[in-house]
Amino acid sequence: MGLDEKKALDALEEMKKFLEERPDLDIKELNSKETVLVIVDMINGFCKEGNLSSPRIKALIPETERILRLCKENEIKAIAFADSHSEDSPEFSSYPSHCVRGTWESEVVDELKEVAELKIINKNSTNGFLEDEFQDWLKNNPQIKNFIIVGDCTDICVEQFANTLKAYFNMKNIKARVIVPISAVETYDLGYHYAELLNIAALMIMAGNGVEIVKTVK
């Protein structure tokens, strides 16, 4: 397989243009009783301190807080996933030890807990959809058809959850809106993990799977 650098750069420019042209989401267009805000991994271990903490993720706190307040004002409930690993988690062979269950790192940041009551679901993998507690929530809330997903990381936990959720509803022949606002997702910069590039790639992969990519939520 050859690598055509010009084609790759041209494609990247087209992707950037596509994302720049995404519309805003008006929160008023969603039925509050059919909508939930899903906050992914806005926790101390990614935002503030720890082996996987990132200033890019920390900078996402104000926008996440704004959207959470907006949802609260419009009577939209919120779920917050929190990485919470066993000490012998197999994931630590891929990533440094982080967010061990019961530690400060695994807790949702105070800035969000102070805004609204959150249903917190701990997760021991990158994909919160797989957690039994989320599966139970999904079965007990069949009225929810709109999911606004914010948090981190765009190319890992957010992408996996959004794509799996969309595939689940497709499998069930249920029309559901899975929505990701560009302003409220982020990833980290480290080595060959280039945040700017991987944000674009992840957003485009989600868009290709039927996830609605919007500029922001108003």
From TrEMBL:
Top-level taxonomic group: Bacteria
Domain (Isochorismatase-like) ranges: 35-201
MF terms (GO), sorted A to Z: nicotinamidase activity
Family annotation (InterPro entries): Isochorismatase-like_dom, Isochorismatase-like_sf, NIC1
Entry keywords, A to Z: Hydrolase
Gene Ontology BP annotations: pyridine nucleotide salvage
Enzyme Commission identifier(s): 3.5.1.19
SUPFAM superfamilies in the record: Isochorismatase-like hydrolases (SSF52499)
The protein's name: Nicotinamidase
Species per Swiss-Prot/TrEMBL record: Caloramator australicus RC3
